[in-house]
Amino acid sequence: VSKEVKDYKIAHPNAKVVSLGIGDVSFPICEHVKNKMKEACDNQASANYVGYGNYYGLLELRQAIKENEYPDFSVDEIYVSDGTKTDSIDILEMFDVNARIAIYAPLYPIYVNGSYCVNRKFETKDQKDILKEHFDIVYLCNPNNPTGYAFTYDELKVWVDYALKNNAVIIYDNVYFKFINSPNTVKSIYEIAGSKKCAIELRSFSKHVSFTGIRCSYYVIPNELYPNINEYWKLRTLNRFNGASYIAQIGALASFDAPAQKVINKNITYYLKNAHYLRENFIKMGYEVIGGTDAPYLWIKCKEMNSWETFRYFLKELNVVVIPGSIFSLDGYFRVSSLGKYEDIVLAIERIMRYEESK
Ligand code: PLP
Q1: Cα-atom radius of gyration of the chain, to the nearest Å?
Q2: How far apart are CA 346 and CA 114, in angstroms?
Q3: H runs (alpha helix) in the chain
Q4: Whole-structure pTM over 0.85, yes or no?
Q5: Ligand 1: distance of its center to the CA of 25 in Å?
Q6: What is the residue with the minimal CA distance to atom 12 of ligand 1?
Q7: Which atom of ligand 1 is nearest to the CA of 108?
Q8: What digits encode the pLDDT tens for the residues 129-165?
């Protein structure tokens, strides 16, 4: 996608291309977090220099994560790392090479490509097909990238019950948890009874703290998990990881302070407002739309063309970038994102609307 967009822009330098394809965030890190990271940087250039730290994450940061998000867990069950992209695949090191892995589609492509990189066998399937068979590991992304859909309590409970029955482990990618706000949805899988026995939850500072370039993530491996891997995972981690950047971790710690939380909530509200605008307008134009209420993504059914054709038509005729569904293992849909600027989103919608009206 980026190559085609880049080539198009080079060939048409006057085209004002706007992107609904953005997976990165639009806002910079907030002042409070920046100031704390600056102090940490000054510290590193002084006699107070901090060298190798705790492999599992700064204790103060893990304590803050526990207090703010995981009061029912001990800090020993919480790990800090440098990104959920890495974490979601690294965790496979703890499981047998022949473990049967199911990836719930449509899916974040990293689960597939990452599994290839570490030479694991996996199957991409939809929910009803996974539930019919036995798998050892199931990847779930909630709220989902690309569909922007967030499970209700009852829908997620089906997965937890399946995992408990099959002794399966759910690798639960929860990086967009801050966007969840509808009634009957769940922010964390641990709100479902029994899930501590079967779920590893992954979160990141990337999206809500604008840490996509700073890099810091965290995850929970409950002591109750079957199999109990914490002791081995700690051994693995100290041998394979020297910890996340000290400065990034100080910034992540500062993100729990009130001035940072205020900005985070304001930014999430902004992205959700964009999503609402996109949702309303695509529906108005007669598209079938999923998501956009509890996530920064919307999953839209193509009309006349397949997803690559839609992508190319929108790029060349409307100068609007959308992401073809095929990239996420499901053709017939495209993904749009609300992580861009409101003005650009309005412009993109105007162009698509004009096209729809001219048909
Ligand atoms: N998981 C999902 C579902 C994502 O959409 C992304 C980034 O777009 C990531 C993980 C990557 O997160 P991180 O920046 O923490 O590596």
Answers
A1: 21
A2: 35
A3: 2-11, 31-44, 59-69, 84-90, 110-117, 127-132, 153-166, 230-240, 246-254, 258-284, 307-313, 342-358
A4: yes
A5: 11
A6: 84
A7: 3
A8: 999 999 999 999 999 999 999 999 999 999 999 999 9
